[in-house]
Amino acid sequence: MNAILSFPKHLAAELTQLRCEVECHRSAIAVAAMAFEQSRLLMVARESDISRRMSVLRQRLAGLLA
């Protein structure tokens, strides 16, 4: 009972084109996600650097006020 399906050539070509377009979009999404993750990591690094500097400034201010 195995039926062999045969698609018209124009439909097979359209399916192949759609698969290529899907793969293109998938790749674009992966690149955008990677860029977003890198920018997020950079932002987190900057925030921790700013937090560290603020802590040092608070300590210096506390030392001046003591």
What does the radius of gyration come to?
Answer: 28 Å
So what's the overall shape?
A: rod-shaped
Number of strands: 0
| Overall helicity | over 70%
Beta-strand percentage? under 5%
Spell out the key features of this protein.
66 residues, mainly alpha, 1 helix
What order do the helices and strands come in, and which of them pair?
Elements: H1 9-65
Structure description:
It is built from 1 helix and no strands. It has one helix at residues 9-65. The protein starts with 8 loop residues before the first helix and ends with a helix. The mean pLDDT is 89.
What's this model, at a glance?
By secondary structure, the protein is an all-alpha fold. 86% of the residues lie in helices and 0% in strands. The chain contains one helix and no strands.
